[in-house]
Amino acid sequence: MNQYGLPVLSARNTAMIEAVADLPPIVVADLFGIHPNTAHAWAQYAQDSWADYLAACQDEE
To answer: Do residues 25 and 40 make contact, with C-beta atoms less than 8 angstroms apart?
Structure first.
C-alpha cells in the first residue's frame, strides 16, 4: 500500500477505532496485537453510552 501512496497508518488507526466499537476487546487485542487491557480501555472510550458523562455532571452539581 505504501508504494501506491496510500496512508497505511491512518487506515490502520481507523480500522482499530471501528473494530473497538463493534468487537469484544479480546478479539481486538488478538487482531491488532495489542495488550488486552489496552483494548479494554479503548472499548470504554469508544462506548456510545452517555451514562458516565451524565453521572459526572450530576456529581458536580
So the answer is: yes
Asked if residues 20 and 42 have their Cβ atoms less than 8 Å apart, the reply is: yes
Residue for grid cell 483494548: 39
Pairwise CA distance, residues 46 & 41, whole Å: 9
pTM for the whole structure: 0.56
**Cα→Cα distances 21→37, 44, 61, Å:** 15, 9, 31
Encode pLDDT of 6-36 as tens digits.
667 777 778 777 888 888 888 888 988 989 9
Q: Which three cell numbers stand for residue 11?
A: 487506515
